[in-house]
Write a structure and sequence with these properties.
The complex is a heterodimer of chains A (83) and B (469).
Chain A lengths: L2 H22 L6 H23 L7 H21 L2
Helix pairs in contact in A: 1-2, 2-3
Chain B lengths: L6 H14 L9 E2 L9 H20 L9 H11 L3 H28 L8 H23 L4 H14 L4 H11 L5 H34 L13 E2 L1 H26 L10 H4 L11 H8 L5 H20 L1 H4 L11 H23 L7 H26 L20 H26 L4 H23 L10
Antiparallel strand pairs in B: 1-2
Classes of the chains: A mainly alpha (83), B mainly alpha (469).
Chain lengths: 83, 469
């Protein structure tokens, strides 16, 4: 397994965990948490597309770092801020 | 990285392609230079339109288009339906995003001259889509039947009554009918969910066809990478990536700022609220508040002015016939464009700061006139510099070497400078009103700043002219 496949696998596992969490939430009282979780899911998918798009070239580490930082921020918002 | 190391991913992509036949699509490959977010603003706006369709269909399961039940059914969606608040919030912010992206797409197209031959009709179809998107915003605003939205629509219909009779009669016949609330709401609803989406989808099909014929607009730089990439998987993956990033931000904003509605409309409650249109109509609302546009003739003149602006922008390809596309070679068009964007932003902020309040003619002249002076001055300096007008040379250490950057960077810098000085100074006037001494001092300072900046541009180090290189 190369770095690309390992990265995609890690993102897919992360997406499954977040998906399981947001489906477990109450659909009326925790809608903002659901929105934040969905935002993280989409950002993670965008990261996979970014990795695939640049599969033949060197990845731009800054964009990957920005993507991961955004996902981390949204996850923190989901856990600690929004209801 | 050798291809055999990525075998699994390639096998998945090949499997998808062999089932869907994406690579045998009629959609043309795209040049590499077009894989940049600015080229895809229109496409992302259409993706958001599709999201609006999905969220709209979900809300239609619960929404009741009747003045008695519209507000209650909207509140039921927000408070008791599973994921209802999320869907309602995404629908609202999606509408904002769609209109904002369409505006950015228009502005970008204007500055880089994408409307020039052979894409004149693409521009006109795009304008029809943009106007339909605005109409969707207008019709959708009424549907929750809140005190602010209903009052604002009443004001708009009141304005239409000032139009000359054949036009007034036709518009009222189409959107308001006999004038009862029931008829108004049901017509707005049918326009919002059927007529306007159909117009947008038809226009999209026509525009996509023309895009396939003409391709992406040519780059302004000769050095752009013109090698082509296949539609599947490269262009599709890029579009999905951009769309997901955009939707991710949209959902995050929806999570942090869920929608809150004002009270239900009733004549008694309406007396306590100032009618306020949505932000994308605030600039027009503010124009109508200028004293010279008071009275029936004044309103007619203001509406004629707004119609004229819309017509000029729509038929721009047949008005601006020059072949030049680079904004640095089109001083007049670029300056007018920057002034228009700055004025729209200023009118929008001003409208948001003064809900329901009138404005004086002096305020209007200062707040709208100052940006023209500032942008005009800086623009003149930038273009004179480009034309290699010899001037005094500054010592190298003070030289502002912005002209050595790329063309688009120059334009952005010029745009940002004018924009911030003009909007900054006018914001103070908008808050304090121009008759205030503090505001007058700040306006004078910003004007002097722009004069100093213009002189600096003119007298800075010798530029390397990118266009002539």
């Amino acid at each position: 397994m190369d770095r690309f496949q390992a990265g995609v696998l890690a993102i897919l596992i992360f997406q499954l965990v977040v998906l399981a969490y947001i489906l477990y939430l109450d659909p009326i009282t925790s809608q903002n948490k659901f929105a934040a979780g969905l935002s993280a899911e989409l950002a993670a998918s965008a990261l996979i597309f970014y990795l695939y798009k640049n599969i033949r070239e060197d990845y731009d580490q800054e964009w990957i770092a920005a993507g991961i930082a955004f996902i981390a921020l949204v996850i923190l918002l989901m856990i600690f801020y929004v209801r | 990285m050798a291809s055999e190391e990525k075998g699994t991913i390639y096998r998945i992509v090949d499997w998808i392609d062999s089932r869907f036949g994406f690579s045998r699509t009629i959609l043309r490959p795209a040049p590499r230079y077009s894989l940049s977010p600015t080229y895809w603003l229109g496409a992302i706006a259409f993706v958001v339109f599709l999201l609006q369709g999905v969220t709209g269909i979900l809300m239609m399961q619960y929404y009741v288009p009747s003045p008695d039940k519209a507000y209650e059914s909207t509140m039921q969606i927000v408070s008791s339906v599973s994921y209802g608040l999320f869907i309602e919030t995404v629908h609202l912010y999606g509408a904002y995003a769609m209109i904002f992206l369409a505006f950015l797409h228009l502005v970008r197209g204007y500055f880089v001259g994408v409307y020039k031959r052979p894409r004149e009709l693409m521009w006109i179809v795009g304008m029809v889509m943009g106007l339909a998107a605005l109409a969707m915003g207008f019709t959708g605003y009424l549907l929750p039947w809140t005190v602010i939205s209903k009052s604002a629509v009443d004001v708009s219909i009141g304005l239409i009554n000032n139009l000359p009779d054949p036009i007034r009669g036709m518009i009222v016949y189409i959107i308001a009918g006999t004038g009862s609330d029931e008829e108004l709401l049901i017509r707005f609803f049918s326009f919002h969910v059927v007529v306007l989406p159909v117009i947008i989808i038809l226009c999209f099909a026509i525009k996509l066809h023309m895009f396939e014929v003409h391709g992406a607009s040519e780059p302004l730089s000769e050095e752009a990478d013109k090698r082509e990439v296949k539609w599947f998987p490269d262009v599709l993956v890029y579009l999905l990536m951009l769309s997901f990033v955009f939707l991710s931000v949209l959902f995050a904003i929806s999570a942090i700022f869920p929608v809150e509605f004002p009270p239900k409309f009733s004549p008694e409650v309406a007396a306590q609220y100032a009618p306020q249109p949505e932000w994308y109509f605030l600039w027009m609302y503010q124009i109508l508040k200028i004293p010279i546009f008071e009275g029936k003739t004044g309103v007619q003149a203001a509406l004629a002015l707004i119609m004229l602006i819309a017509l000029v922008v729509t038929f721009l390809p047949f008005i601006d016939r020059s072949e030049k596309r680079n904004p640095m070679e089109r001083p007049f068009a670029t300056t007018i464009g920057v002034i228009a964007v700055v004025e729209i932003v200023i009118l929008t902020i001003w409208g948001a700061l003064t809900p329901g309040k009138g404005v004086s003619l002096v305020d209007a002249i200062i707040i709208l006139g100052l940006p023209i002076l500032i942008v005009g001055l800086i623009s003149r300096a930038v273009y004179l510099r480009y034309q290699h007008v010899k001037a005094l040379r500054m010592p190298k250490k003070f030289a502002w070497e912005f002209v050595e950057a790329s063309t688009s960077s120059n334009l952005l810098l010029f745009f940002a400078m004018s924009f911030f000085i003009a909007v900054g100074s006018c914001s103070i006037s908008m808050i304090t009103m121009s008759t205030n001494l503090f505001s007058a001092i700040m306006n004078t300072i910003s004007l002097i700043t722009s004069i100093i900046m213009s002189v600096w541009i003119l007298y800075s180090a010798e530029p390397r002219n990118v266009l002539r290189r």
